[in-house]
Write a structure and sequence with these properties.
The chain has 191 residues and is of the alpha/beta class. It has a single domain, classed as 3-Layer(aba) Sandwich (Rossmann fold). The chain has a 6-stranded mixed sheet with strand order 2-3-1-4-5-6, with helices on both faces.
Length: 191
């Protein structure tokens, strides 16, 4: 009888301002229906597990745990409590790219964790808000400042884009876990 590899556990923490669509996107990623009279705040913990099971390209099973964060001022001190054990940060923004989130991640000591930069609500682009939209050059210029590994655009209405997002999050998370293992191997122990 062959051995069964235990699933790889990855943690993705989603950050971004209110109205960026984080919570709605997480409902879609977790394949949950939006509750009636839905008012997005933070993904409720009492509606079941906050992870999905997916597979890597080579067939390994991955449990992708997701963490939603709240932006309200009263949560400023609690939000960083979501950061430990994070394998990838997903910075969500609908219109304007703000470095506040990367600064908070760095200030809390997690600058080595990869970032996926995610432009949300791409289906809501209209001529009224075109001048507010972030252009590709702005995103590319932010690569050095933010240090993002992947940059994607997503709409919760488009199933393929959501699946691509999950795939990129898993790739970024796996790269971080590999780096952590390599760093542990290089540590010296003084006896």
């Amino acid at each position: 009888m062959g051995t069964v590899d235990s699933p790889i556990k990855l943690v993705a923490t989603f950050v971004g301002y209110n109205g960026a669509g984080k919570t709605t996107l997480l409902y879609k990623i977790l394949d949950r229906p939006l509750p009636p009279n839905f008012v997005p705040k933070v993904l409720p913990w009492d509606e079941g597990p906050l992870y999905l099971t997916t597979r890597t390209e080579d067939g390994r099973e991955v449990h992708l745990h997701v963490r939603d964060t709240c932006v309200l001022d009263e949560y400023d001190r609690f939000r960083p409590l979501n950061f430990p054990q994070t394998d990838v940060f997903v910075i969500c923004f609908p219109n304007t790219l703000d470095l506040f989130w990367r600064d908070e991640i760095v200030r809390c000591g997690f600058q080595e964790v990869p970032v996926v930069l995610l432009k949300t609500k791409v289906d809501e682009v209209s001529s009224d808000n075109m001048e507010k939209q972030v252009c590709e050059e702005d995103v590319e210029l932010s690569k050095d400042k933010v240090g993002w590994l992947y940059s994607l655009e997503v709409s919760v209405q488009n199933e393929m884009l959501v699946k691509e997002l999950v795939s990129k999050i898993v790739l970024a998370g796996l790269s971080h876990q590999k780096t952590k293992v390599e760093r542990k191997k290089r540590r010296c122990v003084v006896l």
